[in-house]
Amino acid sequence: MNNSLKQYIELHDEQLAAIERLAPAPLNELRKKARQALDGAVLPRKGSDDYEATDLNTVLAPDYGVNVNHVDLSRESTTKFRCEVPNLSTCLYYVFNDTFRPSETAGKSGDNASVESFQATKHPEVLAKHYGTVANLDNSCTALNTMLAQDGVLIYIPKGSHTTRPIQIINVFDANAQLMAVRRVLIVLEDDAQAKILVCDHTKGDKQYLSLETVEIIVGRNAKLDYYHMEESGMETSRLSQLWVRQHEGSNVLIDGITLTNGYTRNDYHIDVDGEHCDTQLLGMAIASGEQHIDNHTLINHNAPRCQSNEMFKYVLNDDSVGAFAGKILVKPNCPKIDAYQGNRNIVASPTARMYTKPQLEIYTDDVKCSHGSTVGQLDQEALFYMQTRGISLPVAQKLLMQAFMSDVIDGVRLDTLRDRLRHLVEMRLSGDTLICESCELKK
Amino acid sequence: MLVIKDLHATIEGKEILKGVNLTVKPGEVHAIMGPNGSGKSTLSAVLTGNPAYTVTGGEVEFYGKNLLELSPEDRAHEGIFLSFQYPVEIPGVLMSNFMRTAINEKRKYYGEEPMSATDFLKLMREKRAVVDLDNKLASRAVNEGFSGGEKKRNEIFQMAMLEPRLSILDETDSGLDIDALRTVANGVNRLKSKDNATIVITHYQRLLDYIKPDQVHVLYKGRIVMTGGPELALELEEKGYDWIKEQVDNNQL
Amino acid sequence: MSENNNIKKKQDEESIINQAATEEYRYGFVSDFETDVIPKGLNEDVVRRISQLKNEPEWLLEFRLKAFRHWQTLKLPKWGKVNMPDIDFQAISYYAAPQTKTGDKKEIDPELKKTFDKLGIPLEEQKRLSGMAVDAVVDSVSVHTSYRERLAELGVIFCSISEAVKDYPDLVKKYMGTVVPYTDNFFAALNSAVFSDGSFVYIPKGVRCPMELSSYFRINAAQTGQFERTLIVADDDSYVSYLEGCTAPMRDENQLHAAIVEIIVEERAEVKYSTVQNWYPGDKDGKGGIYNLVTKRGICRGDHSKLSWTQVETGSAITWKYPSTILKGNNTVGEFYSVALTRNYQMADTGTKMIHLGKNSRSTIVSKGISAGHSENSYRGMVKVAPDATNCRNYTQCDSLLLSDTSGAHTFPVIEVGNDSSIVEHEATTSKINEDQIFYCNQRGISTEDAVGLIVNGYARDVMKKLPMEFAVEAQRLLSVSLEGSVG
Predict the structure, then answer these.
(1) Three-state SS for B148?
(2) Is the dihedral of CA C134, C136, C141, C144 positive or negative?
(3) Which of A65, B198, C151, C316 is 20 to 30 A off residue C247, Cα-Cα?
C-alpha cells in the first residue's frame, strides 16, 4: 500500500519558503514539529482501531492542488453568495476555499468579540498563546493540517464578553480545479465569556474537493459555547475534520455536528474536560443516501471530577451508504461523580446500506455513573401500521418516524431559529428533495 | 356498508378466524363479545389490514369495494377507524403533526387541498372537547407517557378528527375506571349518526350500558356462534360464556 | 422447586458466605507425585518428542509441525487493556505427565485421587455427583475419565483427545482445526504445535447425553505450561451439556495456559458449554498467577442449532478469552453469559464474537464485570451481521461494577450490520456498588463484606442461573471468596 502522505510531505519540503512567507510566526514554529511528527509516519490502515470503515489513504490519494500562494480562486464575488437561516441574524464571515472574507454584517456580534484571519488579527498574542495547544500532532490529519496551514480564522471572545448575535462562518468550495483547502480555526473564550457559533460547509461546481480542517477550541472558566456545524456539501467533496476542545472549570459546551449531504466525511471530536463542574453536550446527526460515507469518531476525556456529559449520535442510512461511529468516554483515575452517557442510534433503511458502531467506556474511578447504548435497527413496524390505520401512507409514515427519530438531536439545538430551520432541512432531506438550502443562492 | 362473508385468517400459520359472517348497515351499532382468545381482536386486525395476519379465505366488502385488496391507509381513507386495544406509543412524533398528516393524506386521497394550519388548529380544539383532552395534547408525542385512560380518550379524539364511516372499538373499556369509561362512551355517542356505524368489541357488558348495541354477536373459536339483541349481552353478563361453549362443543350451535 | 429445596439452597448460600470469611485461594497446594517432564524449551525436536511420547500417527505430527513452523513466523500479540509481559517461550516446559504407580488408567493412583478429593472432584463412579462424567487432566495428560462405558452404550464418546486420536482417528481428523485453524492466532498456533491433552466429545445423531460431561484441568508441575485441546461434536438432533473447571497451585512464577476449544453443532443440535475458571490469580501484590490465553470457538453449522457459552471467570493473572460463535446455519441461536471478577492486580480482557451468517439467527450476550483492587476488567465483543444474514437479532447487555477507585472497567464492543432487516441492540452501564443497598444490609446486621458478596451475587444472577446446579453453588462460593478483603 502506498502512502498518500508522501505527496504532501514533498510539497511541504519543496514549497517551504512560499508556505512560510505568508504564514504568521506561531504557525511556522509549530510547522517544524508537525513535519517531524510526519517523518516516517504512515496513515492508519482501513480496519485498524478507530478506522474500521474509513480509509485515509484513499481520501488523501488524489493529486489535490494546494493553493500555497493564496491566489484568489473564487469565480464570483462574495456578495452573490448567501446562506441565511431565516429569522436568524448572524454576523457572517466566509472562507472561500482557504481565504477568509468578512461580510457587511461582520463585527456586529457585540462587545469585544473579534473574528479575524490569523494573518490580519489584531490579537497576535492570543494566537501565539493558544495556537496548537489543544490539537495533538499524534493525529496524522492534524499533523498534516499543521504542516501546511498558512492562515485560519481566529474567534476571540475576551473575558466576560457575550456575543449578542451568533457568529456564522460559511466555508465555500468554488474552484476550477480539484482542490484541497487547509482550514484552521482557533476559538478562544476567556473566563465568563459566551458565544454561539454556526459553521456551514457548501460546495459549488462538480470538482473534487477535500477540506482538511482542524478546529481548536479553548473554553475558559464558567464560559459557555454553542458550536454548530452543518455539512451540506456536494457528493464529490471529502472532509477530514478534527475538532479539539479543552474545557476549564464550570464551562458549558455544546458541540453539534450535522451531516446532511456530503461525499466522504470523517469527523474527529476530541474533548478534554479539565475542570470540575463542567457540562458537555456532544450531539451529531447523519443522513446518508447514495454512496455517501459518514464516519464520526469521538473521545470525551473526563480529566476532572464532578462533571456531566451527554453524547448522542443518530444515523439514517439509505441506498448504498456507509455509516460509522466510534465513541469513547474515558474517566481518568480520581475523577469521582462523573455522570456520562453516550448513545448511538441507527436506522438502516436499505438492504445494501452498512453501519459500523463501536461505543466504548473506559473507566478508572468507581464513583461514577456511566452508560452507553447503541442500536442498529429499522423503523418500528407497529408504529408504521398504527399510522397507516390513520390513513398515513407508508412512505409518509416512514418519513415521520425518521424525523421523530432525529428529534432529540434537533431539540438539542439551543438557538430557536436554527432549530426550526434544521427541522425543516431534515424534513426536506428525508423527503429526498434536492440540495437543500433553498435560501442559499448557491445553485448547482 | 360492510359485508363479511366466510372470513378465514391465520397468524403465524395458526388459524384464528374460521368463517366469520357479518353484515353492518349505516346507523347500526354491533357488539362483538366472546371469551378470551375467541378471535375478537383478530377480526379488528384483519379488517384494518394488519400485516401480521394472513387472510386465507372469504370476502370483505365495504361500500361495494373489496376491502381486503386495500392498503391499511386506504382502508382508513375509505372510512374505517380502529380504536386500538393497546394504542401504540410513538416517541418523538407530536400529536399535532401526526393528526395533520393523517387528515391531509385523506384529503389528498379525495383530491382535496391540504387543510390550512388555522383551520386545523380550530378543528383540533373543537374535537379535543369531545373527550376532554387538554390543550397540551398537540405538543405531546403520540401516546407517549399517556395514562391508560388518556390513551383511550386519545383514540376517540382521533376518531372525532377523522370522522370515519365505520368505527371499530377494540376493548376500549379495558383498563378504564367508571368516569373514564363514561367520558369515552359519551364521546363515541356524540359522534354517532345515521350515516356511520360502530362495531364494539368487548369482553364485558358494562360498556354496552353506555353504547347501546342494535345487535350482539358472540364470537367463539373463530366463528360467530350466536346473534341476538341487547338482551343477549345481559344474559352473557349473568350466565358467563360457559353455556355457549358447551353448546358449541357439543355441536348444538 | 420445593420449599425444602429452597431452604437447603439458602443454607448452602449461607455456608458459602461463612466460608468466604476464612479462606483465600484454597486450591493452592502442590501435590507430591512424580512427574515426567520434557526439559524446558521449544524447537522442532520438542514437538516431535511430544508426538512420539504420545505415540501419534504421522498426520498429527505433520499438523503439529506445520503449526509450529507457522508459529515461528508470528510475534506475541499486544492487545486489549492488558499489560502482557514478554513471555520467554524457551523457559517453559511443554510436557509434564504425572507418573502413575499403577500404570493403568482404570485404577486411580492414590496420590492423584487425594489431589482430586482435595479439589472436591470425584473420580470414582460410586462417589458420583448427580451423574456427572469427569475427564481429569493434570498438567499435560488426562489421568482419568469416568463413566466411559455407560456413555459408550449410547454411542457417546467421551475420552481424552490422545485416546480419541488412537481410537477415533477419522472423527478427529475430520473436525480438528476446522473451527480454530492453527493460523488463527499466536496462541492457537502454539497450542496446535504442542497440545498435549484435553477432552474429546462426540454425541451421535439424535442422542441427548444423559449426564453432564465435565473436564477438570489442573496445572501441578512447576514451570510448565498447559496446552490442552478440547473438541466437541454434536451431531444432528443431539444435546450435551459440558462443564470445565480449572485450578493450579500457588507459585511465584507465572505459568502459561493456552488452550483451544472447538465446538461443532450440527442440525437442530444443542451444546451448552460452561466454564468456572479459577486458575491461581497471583498473590495480593500481583506476583505469580496463570496467564490464561485461550481460543474458544464454536460453529452452529446446521440449521436450528444452538450453542450457549456460560463462564464464571475469577482466576488467572491475565485472561484473554473470547468464546465465540459462528452462526452459519439458518435459525441458529448463540448465547454468551459471562461473569468476570478481577481483584488485586488481575487483568481480564474477555468477551465474545457473534458472527451472523445464517438467516434468522439470534444471539444474546450478557456480560457482568466486577473489578476490585487494582485490577483491570474489560469486555471486548463483536457482533457482525453479514449482508445475506437477513432478519437477525442480537441483544447485548454489558454491565460493570466497580468496587474500588483504583480498578478499571472498560467496554469495547464492535457492531457491524450489513442489511436492513436485522436488529442489533447494545446497552452498557458502569457504576459503583449501591451504598443504600449496603446500608440496608448493614442495618439488618449483615457485615459490609457479606453484603457485597450478596449484592455481587445478585448482580451476577442472570449469568449464574444459566449454570448447571452443581456448578452454580461452586461458582457462587467462588465469587464470595474472591471478594474477600477487596472491599474498601
Answers:
(1) helix
(2) negative
(3) C151
**With touching defined as 3+ CB pairs under 8 A, do chains C and B touch?**
no
Whether A134 and A244 have beta carbons less than 8 Å apart is answered as yes
Q: How much is the pLDDT for C457? A: 78
Mean pLDDT of A150-159: 95
Q: Measured between alpha carbons, how far is C205 from C211 in angstroms, rounded to an integer? A: 16
Q: Is the dihedral of CA C267, C268, C269, C273 positive or negative?
A: positive
Length of chain A: 444
Cβ <8 Å between A377 and C430 = no
Q: Which residues of A touch C420 (CB under 8 A)?
A: 348-351, 353, 378
Residue A44's Cα: distance from chain center in Å?
A: 20
Tally of CB atoms within 10 A around A278: 25
Binning chain C into helix, strand and coil, the percentages to the nearest 5 are 25, 35, 40
CB-CB contact of A78 with A103 (8 Å): yes
Residue holding cell 500500500?
A: A1
Residues A41 and A12: beta-carbon distance below 8 Å: no
Longest CA span, chain C: 68
The amino acid that residue C76 corresponds to is: L
Cell numbers of A304, please? 476532572
pTM of the model: 0.80
Q: Is B200 helix (H, G, I), strand (E, B) or coil?
A: strand
Closest C-alpha among C169, C124, C164, C166 to residue C147: C124
Q: Over the stretch C364-394, which tens digit does the pLDDT of each residue have?
A: 999 999 998 888 899 999 999 999 999 999 9
Residue A22 contacts residue A151 (beta carbons within 8 Å)? yes
Shortest Cα–Cα distance, A86 to chain B (Å): 20
Q: What is the dihedral of CA C98, C100, C101, C103, to 10 degrees?
A: -140
Neighbours of C (≥3 Cβ pairs closer than 8 A)? A
With H, G, I as helix, E, B as strand and everything else as coil, classify residue C13.
helix
Which grid cell sits at C249?
Answer: 497451585
C-alpha cell at position C326:
459462528
Strands (E), A133-208: 153-157, 167-173, 179-189, 194-203
Residue A182: which of A4, A25, A324, A12 has the closest Cα? A12
C416–A368 CB contact, under 8 Å = no
Distance CA A297, CA A139 (A): 12
Q: Residue A369: helix, strand or coil by DSSP?
A: strand
Q: Which residues contact B149 (CB under 8 A, 6 or more apart)?
A: B175, B176, B177, B180, B183
Round to whole Å and give the CA distance between A203 and A213.
Answer: 15
Helix (H) or strand (E) holding C442: helix C435-443
Cα(A327)–Cα(A338) distance, rounded to whole angstroms? 17
**Cα–Cα distance between A259 and A265 in angstroms, integer?**
8
The CA-CA-CA angle for residues C312, C314, C315, to 5°, reads: 125
For A110: left if phi > 0, alpha if psi spans -120 to 50, otherwise beta; the answer is left
Residue C59 burial (CB count, 10 A)? 12
Cell 451421535, residue located: C204
Touch of B by A (3+ CB pairs closer than 8 Å): yes
* Least confident stretch, A164-173, B183-192, C475-484: C475-484
C444-483 burial, b at 16+ Cβ within 10 Å, e below that, comes to eebeebbbbbbbbbebbeebbebbbeebbbbbbbbbbbbb
Q: In this predicted model, what pLDDT tens digit does every residue of A322-366 receive, in sequence order? A: 999 999 999 999 999 999 999 999 999 888 999 999 989 999 888
A388 touching chain B per CB within 8 A: yes
Please name the residues in contact with A49: beta carbons below 8 A apart, sequence gap of 6 or more: none
- Is the distance from CB of C411 to CB of A361 less than 8 angstroms? yes
The whole-number pLDDT of residue B21 equals 96
